[in-house]
Amino acid sequence: MTPGHGSTVDGVLRRSARRTPARVAVDYGERSWTYEELDEAVSRAATVLLDQGLAPGDRVGSYGHNSDAYLIGFLACARAGLVHVPVNQNLTGDDLAYIVGQSGSALVLTDPGLAGQLPVGVRTLPLRDAEGSLLEQLTSASPYDGPEPRTEDLVQLLYTSGTTALPKGAMMTHRALVHEYLSAITALDLSAGDLPVHSLPLYHSAQMHVFLLPYLAVGATNTILDAPDGDRLFDLIEAGRVDSLFAPPTVWIGLANRPDFATRDLSGLRKAYYGASIMPVPVLERLRERLPKLAFYNCFGQSEIGPLATVLGPDEHKGRLDSCGRPVLFVDARVVDEDGKDVPDGTSGEIVYRSPQLCEGYWDKPEETTAAFRDGWFHSGDLAVRDAHGFFTVVDRVKDVINSGGVLVASRQVEDALYTHEGVAEVAVIGLRDDRWIEAVTAVVVPRGEVTEAQLIDHAREKLPHFKAPKRVLFVDELPRNASGKILKRELRERFAD
Fold this sequence. Notes:
Blueprint: H1 9-19, E1 24-28, E2 31-34, H2 35-50, E3 59-63, H3 68-80, E4 83-86, H4 93-103, E5 107-110, E6 124-126, H5 134-137, E7 154-160, E8 168-173, H6 174-187, E9 196-198, H7 205-218, E10 222-224, H8 230-238, E11 244-247, H9 249-256, E12 271-275, H10 281-290, E13 295-301, E14 308-312, E15 326-327, E16 332-336, E17 349-354, H11 366-372, E18 373-374, E19 377-386, E20 392-397, E21 401-404, E22 407-410, H12 411-418, E23 424-434, E24 438-447, H13 453-463, E25 472-475, H14 489-495
Parallel strand pairs: 1-10, 3-4, 3-5, 5-6, 9-10, 9-11, 11-12, 12-13, 24-25
Antiparallel strand pairs: 1-2, 7-8, 13-14, 14-15, 16-17, 17-19, 18-19, 19-20, 21-22, 23-24
Helix pairs in contact: 1-2, 1-7, 2-3, 6-7
């Protein structure tokens, strides 16, 4: 193997394997991998991928559920110089076809049960549980012995929803992600002695890049679950196998509302991380009251920056439970007005970033890249207030994106689906506060003739993945507009807030 001179994503694992080869790196179901075994598997998987006729720089989609094979597939792409394209396993139809097509994925790694959802003609390789799968081929493949990727090479396209129906692929380099890993390690106090569990989808940048890869970097023992199942999580905590958990507020709310939350022995849980959407203060207070020794960390950011941008540490929560904290090690952040000038502390403005963690732009979208990167800063689209001590509080979003349970839903795409129903004269889709989903996708409709809420929800579910369909439909006589005719969604959110 040609030696490299920088730090790469796969190099994070290689160093840990050399440092602690016999320590368990990953537990998944009945399988367990030491650091040495995992590193060897990644090298063999890299050879398997290149034997598919792929070349460095080719894009490889990954459309599967959580597993050890999913992780090996990502790291194998990184080692072979391929560009990994994680795809939400809930996507189907046009949404799925768009990402596979727009990224130009030459191959898609997938679970056998999901392969049928992919567009006809797409070349696939099963990750596991099938003859000829990536895992099955590891025993016969030789370890990768080619050149190491360069730190400036692309390693992943992270697709992030915007205000339009078409998502954008943030181009992440090895350099950007490794910087982000170090930021996560320092801001979140990650250490080799922690026992983290990873139950959120690995296609999501938060679970993969804020927790799983940084924890591999420090040499911790990681447990991967298929999903955030409350019974399984509580069992692992009581058994002393887990002491660190990341989850969006939706999952924390579900855990806090379980009948056995007050009776299970959860004292072994030492670190609690939350993010991906706003945590309701009453829920956080309830969790802190039940588990007073548990250290809570609020993580905030977006895919384009790796995704961690700010953190509110456990000793910083008092008096600022609604804050998302201060910028992490490699992030410089400002709050600016529409002209890009700094606003005074305490004044609302857009957060802009400058950081080696940032993406290189959006894949094959030069106009969107130019719009987001202006004057040497990345414009996040988030409105926030900074206080005199450097703490940020997010107050709104510039873009009309709904954060439902930690998953971003573009309002325009939902509106377009509803407009195909003959009973819809006009529609505006907004996010409204919800006890379970944090923000519930809500359609405000001016009806044409007789139409019911159930009919419109069913219609949307025929056009969209179920998680994008509205949870509620509200009927009005007209939609509020400004002088130029633009629908005033903020006024709708205020009107229906209760």
